[in-house]
Amino acid sequence: MKAIPFDLIIAGQRAVDDDSYLVPSAVAEYLGIPMLSMVVRQEITGRNIQCEQSLQDGTAVVEADLRLF
Length: 69
Prior knowledge:
Blueprint: E1 9-12, H1 22-31, E2 35-45, E3 48-55, E4 58-65
Parallel strand pairs: 1-2
Antiparallel strand pairs: 2-3, 3-4
């Protein structure tokens, strides 16, 4: 996997690993890159990405500058 040029991992809400969400975190850690998990909606505008994340008590909106990745 290290031969593939990834800058950011965006993972959805559902997983095949018993919904423990470990795979995206493990892949990001292995590659040494950032990760956004539990994403239920995303929007890319220009050089920014805005993701809505599902949390235990609701949702959170996270925004990042894609030029940093």
